[in-house]
Amino acid sequence: MSRPITPPVNGTIQTNVDVESAISSVNIRTGSELNKHHMVVTIADETLHLWGYKKSMLKVAFLWLATFVTLGFIRLFLYWNPKWLVKCTAYKCPISVCDYVLVKDEHENEAFRPIRVMDPPKGQSQLVLPLGGGKFNYVESLRYFTYRKMTYIWHPNELKYTTIAALEADLPLGYFHDCIESEAGLSDDEVQRRLIVYGKNLIEVKLKPILVLLFKEVLTPFYIFQVFSVTVWYTDNYAYYASIIIFMSVTSICADVYQIRKQELRLQSMVQSHETVMVLRNGGQVETIPQENLVPGDVLLIPPRGCILQCDAILMNGTVIVNESMLTGESVPITKVALPELDEEHESIPFSFKEHSKHLLFCGTQVLQTRYYRGKHVQAIVLRTAYTTLKGQLVRSIMYPKPVDFRFTKDLFKFVGFLACIAALGFAYTLVVMIFRGSALKKIIVRSLDIITIVVPPALPAAMSIGIIAAQMRLRAKQIFCISPSTINTCGAINTVCFDKTGTLTEDGLDFNCVRAVFASGSDPNRKPEFGEEMEDFQSDELPRDGELVKAVATCHSLTRIDNELCGDPLDLILFRKTAWIIDETTPDNQVEETARFDMLQPTVLRSPVHHFGAESETELAVIRQFTFSSSLQRMAVIVHNPKEESRSMHIYVKGAPEMIASLCEPDTVPENYQEVVNEYAQHGYRLIAVASRNLKMSYVKAQKVKRELIECQLTMLGLIVMENRVKKQTVGVINQLNRAHIRTIMVTGDNLLTAMSVARECGIIRPNKKAFLLEATNNKSSTGKTLLSLRQSVSSSEEVLETDDSSWDAEAELGHLVQSSYHLAIAGPTFSVITHEYPELLDQLVCVCDVYARMSPDQKQQLINSLQEVDYTVAMCGDGANDCAALKAAHAGISLSEAEASIAAPFTSKINDIRCVPMVIREGRAALVTSFGVFKYMAGYSLTQFITIMQLYWLSANLTDFQFLYIDLGLITLVALSFGYTPACEKLAKMPPPTRLLSVASVLSIIGQLTIIASFQIFAFIYTAYQPWFIPYAVPLPDLEDRRSMQGTAIFCVSCFQYITLAIIYSKGHPYRKPLYSNIPMCVSLLVVGMLSIWVTLSPPKLFSDKLEFDPIPYFDDRLFYFMLGILSGVLSYLYETFFIEHMILGVRERHLKHKQLMSGSGDINRFERILIKIG
């Protein structure tokens, strides 16, 4: 039933709507919309597929029955497959009336989420439905579900699920001023209604109970298979090895749970916050409330002495100095200004996060100080809360990272599936043979199931982790700590490394190098302005006598005093201190606190040292207005006034990028060799700042209102300031090491593009013999409305427009031309955004050829990492700031040089505060990956070797004895496998990464060839024994008796012992990713011990051993020597096959030839980035 429109509250139109009536009225128009079973929800960059289901009690009852009959196995299978769980418990229905939704995101993650209903708060009959634009409808209830900390509500008018509309969505700017002018704030009833819909303003990480974590680990397929295996072994009285497997599994599970809990605790400590805040509510009353009770639309009061912001808000009055390092990584305090008053024409302009960022306060940032009108509070309007804030999105990206697609893991499961097929064949063979022999039922079942545990070794997961554990220990010894050990293997395949710049490649901050003043022509019209010599400070008598350059440097900055300490951009601090001027922000009567100076007539005053440039008294300059630095304009400016001059006499000082400042200056004030000097410094990696000025005639009031573009022109060039961003001494060597290993290096930074390029050239990311070009978005549009792109060489003023209006061909050809001509490409964040949105067809090509990314925001860094991964690069990211968190989490391997926020997102944290850790991690990753390959092939070879042995013995109805199994499983396999990973990584990075395909031709042929050799020698020994004069045939025991001893079993056992040892030696080779085998002392000792024992057992077994192993002894030494020689010969042939055929012929010749052929043709199994590079040249 519809209700009338109620009066606006805070300028918000609120309409009463009955949900059922709304749905039925819309149903008349679009009935098909309500009957949809599937729906796609796209919010920002996130896309979800939804399917509606209703619970079926009949299906649920049948599932419980099936669970009981199958002893829980059917439920376990459904736990691994959410989609099948849905189908077994519910039926399809329209999504508008469903009880559950099956959610699938863009990374193929699936979840089964229940639909819930929001009811009005107690004592009220209605909820609010946010519509965007500051409008809310009143409704009686809301249907919703939650997925990954976000709430999705069913919109009765739009007939779809959507996230709760943020307050700023489609919001006109006039709305904010209406809220402030009312001076009322929200009522308690309105707060309660919004609190139900928006939820509590908390970003919290709930700790999962230890028991839940244990169950999740235990219920993985491999551990379930281990439970099955040890059950079979205990049934068969094979308790020794079963107990060892249980001990290893429990240890592994506990270690994994410990790591998970440790990571949860670190993330929780980063995000948890329980503060109180002040708000304006209930007709203008100031109330102190817990942060969790904040809702969008609240008027937030910011304390004068600072705080940590608990929401995203827009500043409405006063100024706020904030530290946004949590989000941007830059620790420079930033001044946020209030949203200005608007005329009627501009009140309807929609709010934009990007366009109005200088008025925005972000959750998690630190407010250092506020300044306000005397007697008034600094006010802001809450826009977003909890996980919808910028900090909340960062935390979500850490909690739910993009799954790493690593081919090795997929191949591992495929190979295990192949082993399972062989196990099924062995299972069938055993059943047939034993039924034919008339064996007892229990024996048939146990022996058949035992074959499965032989072919698919339960110790495989533990064995596969050996290389990873050893690599983790070696990294820890080098002060590199890993919280995600499974990532170590992935590091072995890394072929691209992205580096942050400041604090990672370079030292923090910049150093002053020199200043080059411009000396004006004076009264001589024939004299051109020219640069002076390099000066090391601003006190030199050789600087221009008018002192304009020094005045510009002393006033043109955003420095401020906080608690009597000068704070601001480190670059501004360095330059200001070089001038020796004094900043004075006190009022004449000294009665007003720092925090109460906003918009007072007394501005910031800068004072020079006495007798500066020969002056008899100190110079005073008052900063009337400041134009903050704009990355798009590449400059900042201040309007200043000298109190000794007339009131309308003003000066504007501007500083910024050399090219930009020169374009704003009168040509006759710029030296003729200006560009030549700029290029010379830029080529040597210096950062340049140009300074210019202009005299103005205007009143104080006009100075406060004039648009900057009207006065930032017709400037006079004053000079260049040369700054040096010192590259860490270890950086160049590491970058060169990575380049020699053919590992691509990329710089991705939030810093200036030109600075980034100069540092990239200095450290070797941009090679000395290659030119660098800047790809930039222009202000011009094509005929189709797309932004035109331009290519500009970084050391010259030549520029060519890149036509991309009609199609991508011209741009594509241009990118291809750059690659063919050995150029480097650099791009800034705004241009990257243009290409992402307007030229998505160029993005794949861009990330293949561009090596420098500057002015990149945290989400753009993450997007770059994802784009590189989409073209099949295996990417590492190395950074040190909180703004790198999302990228560190998204990369295949994130390496943090900080122990703060970044370390929570990164699998690796290095206490070595430079990039030497990167090649260390890659080397250890390669060693671990090769070890995992070797261990897997060794375990697969061992299981199939034992399978071949058992199949022959089952033919006789015989078997290996328990202690023979134990000697092989524990002595020959487990002890050797445990020492596999202790071969250290090679000190030098090889030019080619190790193979990542477990099912490559070389791997498959290796295993098949080795098994062929092994089977041949075992079958020969089996047959040879049967024809010996001393041979006593095996007597099949009665069905209820167990006798496993046989002469043929003894012969095969002795030969196979040496085959297992040979497999260990073959698959533990080192070069070129690991050191030689002899460097692995534990493994050498293990092999020596088991080798000597095997020789002893074969040639002259002592009675104790003979009895324990239950040998049916070979009577003559010559025959025992013959079996020993068979084992040695088998090993020699296996070694020769692996060395000459697999490593030389297959890996060395065939695969190189095949790779070359594929690269030339652009076809076959090659990476996408290789195809792209082939396509564009």
Automatic annotation (TrEMBL):
Q: How does it sit in the membrane?
A: Multi-pass membrane protein
Q: Which residues cross the membrane?
A: 61-80, 210-234, 240-260, 412-436, 451-471, 935-955, 967-986, 998-1027, 1047-1068, 1080-1101, 1121-1142
* Top-level lineage group: Eukaryota
Q: Where is the P-type ATPase A domain?
A: 274-398
One GO location term (cellular component): late endosome membrane
What family does the entry list? Belongs to the cation transport ATPase (P-type) (TC 3.A.3) family. Type V subfamily.
Name listed for the protein in its UniProt record: Cation-transporting ATPase
Naturally occurring in which organism (per UniProt):
Acrobeloides nanus
